[in-house]
Specification:
The chain crosses the membrane at residues 61-83, 89-111, 143-165, 171-191, 203-224, 244-266, 278-300, 320-345, 365-387, 393-414, 426-449. This protein is α+β, with helices and mostly antiparallel strands. The chain is built from 27 helices and 18 strands. The strands form five sheets. A five-stranded antiparallel sheet has the order 3-9-16-12-11, with helices on one face. Helix 8 (177-191) packs across helix 14 (326-349).
Length: 879
């Protein structure tokens, strides 16, 4: 096909495609045979009176370049500052430029291949040519054609999740997440109604503007506020293979959008203009990447989070960035949906007039296919608990080949026999071989770690849940004012190696909170990388999975604090406490999680192991309980729903023994009414996720005085030293040592270190307090004010699982605890929804009744009295 024909013909060239390979015998570049003649019996293809002929060749090179920028540059740009923090300023810039050059070269190779074979519309067509000489053409076409489509549908699902996070963040999660997913699916589908990319190119312009503004808002915010700190900047850093490789994968993901290149080239008015569009893309994205990475790294410092959005000033600024970024969230997915739908449409209608004409049938089918693609993306994303890990697996298997491996193979195939004919060819052979090696390495290691992550369970999300997912990526902050705290903590934890316990701080509160809290950050990285990945660029699913999992595999790099998590659902409210008031129904109201066998008389682990547990880990039959939190008003008190209850077991690398059977403990003081009464070693805090931060000097154990951006959260630490015989316990480092100094385990004589339990509880106030609050919130715990926060625990772990917990005793971050009942993420053996009160005839779940039993006034009367007192003073926080 000549240049003029290519510039004016239909993109799918169904006539030529129907004869795909018939004029290509064995080799590529040297076969100059012309395409076959136009078939005489193509069904209606040239009948002028049956549908308007669609002009697919509508893209000017600048329009095409804008489409490419919209597809490639997204919020993933904000993950690059952490790369510079890892490898150093100068090496990071060099890496960005190097990977940009490789991505540019691979894009040119794809254009060279399509110029030689202009009927190629997708990777299936291209790889079919290579497979034909060995009789595998049709197989290759099916595998790679559908692989491209599957990848794009999964990426569409990722964008739908990104959209739901965005909307939940902007609206504080007041609408069901599934509703936002459905709204996004339908709105984005409307953008796919046009059959060509002409209209998408104009939308892509809005996408480009939005991401540029979002990036510069972030850059300006960190430059002005320096929200985390500005520690020393490393111009160069000495590091090993693992962090260097992780940095490369991070950057490679930011340049990977090649799966759409063939389809975009097919819609150029003049495909020879492709190098201009590619240059526009690479100059734009490389410039933005370097500016954002350098400025944010310089102003935030070596502890810059990834992505850097969480470093941007206040929650209001972060919301502004999300709002501005909406077009880029949508349009990149629209382009993927267009390419995927076009492939499916062509496979269905083949060499018929409907491929190139706007008939009634083709219009209906196009609408149905695009809707089906969006619907399938949404269903996959919402239905698969391990969607994140599965997306990483699909991306590792295919995206690495589309962006690096296959372009190299195409060149080698086209120039077979002419690899070393001159110096230029030798240089191109070397560059092409490097592309192929990069593709293989990314694919093999990416598959390995993705499969390992799935095998180990990874962290899953609940399918089809209305629960807000905005808080999942925000756990990197673990609360609004924790950003500065995390930076300080990261430095502190690095300086106190787990291998040198005698040199660590003797303040167990700061050690446990400052270092132990890192577990939640790490968990959000490995197990929830798509929620995070939803926040990061679609194409970073590959590098996110590789980065977070290879950190475990290659070097154990990162946090030196081993931990595991037991997530459990609440199954009852009740006025009992078998530890503090055993045998009596005279306790304040508690919320119970874990084994439903707990009663006022429970004393042993075996008692609990006979029940039904709501814990996700089938080997955990422990009982966890905390005083119930209520929203109060003149009509009474309403329990605040839980967003998530997590029992973290941290500092496992320091543990000498497993948590003993029958062990029980209480952390915190139910009698506390002010900060001075709070047990300092319990690390009790109340704070808002995503801000606003508390004022400097505010009590840590006090409720926030302003509306929370997402969830209200509290933290609580338990003892980590235990006497295995008496089951007495205490916090490490608290003994009044005399002459012999501090023992290595920092426990009193006769005690040994065990994994330290930490409660992390998130409450969802957005429906009960839709208008928020300013000043003292209308909240109370069943025990009184926020200062009386406490937690109770009776160990119910199966003995084998409790011992297996110690296998996390390394510098790896998260490790699931398996046991006789199965893998750690297998779910409750009996089904959490089947858990119920084991003693329903006694005690009460009615808050007013429990107050009467304790001789307290009704909530209604208490609220009225409080209202009268507020006329003269402020800040009463409970009873």
């Amino acid at each position: 096909m000549g240049k003029d024909e290519e510039a004016t013909g239909a993109p799918a060239d169904p006539i030529d495609q129907g004869e795909l390979g018939s004029h290509q015998s064995s080799k590529g570049a040297n076969n100059d045979a012309p395409p076959p003649p136009f078939p005489e019996n193509v069904e209606g293809l040239v009948e002028k009176d049956e549908g308007e002929l669609i002009d697919f060749k509508t893209l000017h090179w600048l329009q095409g370049g804008i489409v490419l920028v919209a597809e490639t540059v997204s919020l993933g740009i904000l993950s690059l500052p952490s790369v510079l923090a890892t490898v150093g300023l100068v090496p990071g810039i060099i890496l960005i430029c190097t990977v940009s050059a490789l991505a540019t070269y691979s894009g040119l190779l794809l254009a060279e291949f399509r110029k030689q074979y202009p009927f190629v519309q997708n990777f299936g067509d291209a790889v079919e040519l290579i497979g034909k000489p060995i009789g595998m053409g049709s197989v290759f076409r099916e595998v790679f054609g559908w692989a491209q489509t599957i990848l794009q549908i999964f990426l569409i699902g990722g964008h739908i999740l990104m959209w739901t996070i965005c909307m939940n963040t902007l609206t504080n999660g007041t609408t069901c997440t599934v509703v936002w997913a459905a709204v996004g699916m339908l709105v984005f589908w409307v953008f796919n109604v046009p059959r060509t990319l002409k209209w998408t190119s104009w939308m892509s312009a809005a996408s480009c503007i939005s991401i540029i503004i979002a990036v510069f808002i972030t850059v300006i915010a960190v430059a002005i506020e320096k929200p985390i700190g500005n520690g020393p900047i490393d111009v160069f850093k000495s590091l090993g293979f693992s962090p260097a490789f992780l940095a490369v994968t991070n950057i490679a993901g930011a340049f990977s959008s090649h799966s759409i290149f063939f389809s975009v080239i097919a819609e150029f008015k003049n495909p020879d203009d492709w190098p201009k569009a590619l240059a526009f893309l690479q100059i734009t994205d490389t410039t933005l990447y370097i500016i954002a990475a350098v400025v944010i790294y310089v102003y935030v410092g070596p502890d810059v989070p990834s992505p850097a959005l969480s470093a941007a000033g206040s929650a209001t600024v972060r919301k502004a960035i999300w709002g501005v970024a909406i077009p880029t969230i949508a349009i990149a997915a629209v382009i993927y949906a267009h390419v995927a739908s076009q492939y499916i449409f062509t496979r269905i209608f083949g060499n018929t007039k409907h491929v190139v004409r706007r008939t009634r049938l083709s219009t209906i089918w196009w609408l149905l296919i695009t809707l089906g693609v969006w619907g399938l993306g949404m269903v996959i994303a919402e239905s698969i608990p391990i969607f994140n890990n599965l997306l990483g697996l699909v991306s590792a298997a295919f995206a690495s080949w589309f962006s690096f491996g296959l372009p190299g193979i195409f060149w080698l195939w086209m120039h077979y026999g002419n690899w070393f004919t001159n110096l230029k060819q030798c240089c191109r052979f070397a560059a092409t071989s490097l592309l192929l090696v990069v593709g293989i390495v990314l694919c093999v290691l990416g598959l390995w770690v993705s499969i390992e992550s799935i095998a180990n369970g990874g962290a899953g999300s609940k399918p089809w849940t209305c629960e807000s997912n905005a808080d999942r990526q925000s756990t990197r902050d673990d609360g609004g004012n924790h950003r500065k705290f995390n930076s300080w903590r990261a430095t502190r934890c690095k300086s106190h190696s787990a291998d040198e316990p005698s040199k660590r701080s003797l303040n167990p509160t700061t050690e446990a909170v400052d270092c132990g809290i890192t577990s939640e950050l790490s968990f959000s990285g490995l197990g929830q990388s798509l929620i995070f990945l939803s926040f990061v660029h679609h194409s970073t699913s590959l590098h996110t999975s590789i980065m977070q999992s290879l950190a475990l595999f290659l070097a154990g790099a990162g946090v030196a604090n081993a931990y595991t998590i037991a997530v459990a659902e609440r199954f009852m409210y009740k006025n009992i406490d078998p530890i503090v008031v055993p045998g009596k129904y005279t306790s304040h109201m508690h919320s119970f999680f874990g084994s439903d066998a707990v009663t006022v008389n429970t004393t042993t682990s075996k008692d609990l192991q006979a029940g039904c547990s709501t814990a996700e880990n089938p080997n955990d039959f422990s009982s966890y309980w905390v005083p119930t939190l209520f929203v109060r008003n003149e009509s009474g008190a309403t329990p605040v729903p839980f967003s998530r209850f997590s029992a973290y077991y941290v500092s496992i690398e320091n543990a000498e023994v497993a948590i003993p059977q029958d062990y029980k403990a209480v952390a915190g003081k139910s009698s506390a009414t002010k900060q001075a009464d709070v047990e300092p070693l319990a690390g009790i805090e109340w704070f808002c996720e995503n801000g606003p931060a508390k004022a400097d000097g505010a009590d840590k154990a006090a409720f926030p005085t302003k509306t929370c951006g997402t969830h209200l959260q509290t933290l609580l630490l338990f003892h980590d030293c235990v006497n295995e015989k008496t089951l007495e316990s205490t916090y490490s480092g608290t003994h009044n040592w005399v002459s012999w100094g501090v023992p290595a385990n920092r426990c009193p004589v006769g005690m040994k270190r065990m994994p330290q339990l930490r409660f992390s509880i998130r409450y969802d106030l957005r429906r009960l307090l839709p208008n928020g609050w300013t000043g003292a919130p209308p909240l109370e715990l069943a025990c009184g004010s926020s200062y009386c926060t406490h937690g109770d625990f009776i160990n119910g772990w199966l003995p084998e699982a409790a011992e297996n917990m110690l296998k996390s005793n390394s510098k790896r971050d998260f490790k699931g605890v398996d046991g006789p009942n199965g893998k750690y993420n297998a779910g409750s053996v009996c089904g959490a929804k089947n858990a119920k009160d084991a003693d329903p005839k006694n005690g009460t779940s009615d808050y007013e009744k429990s107050r009467k039993i304790l001789g307290l006034r009704s909530v209604t009367q208490a609220v009225r009295n409080l209202a009268r007192r507020r006329k003269t003073r402020r800040g009463v926080a409970g009873y």
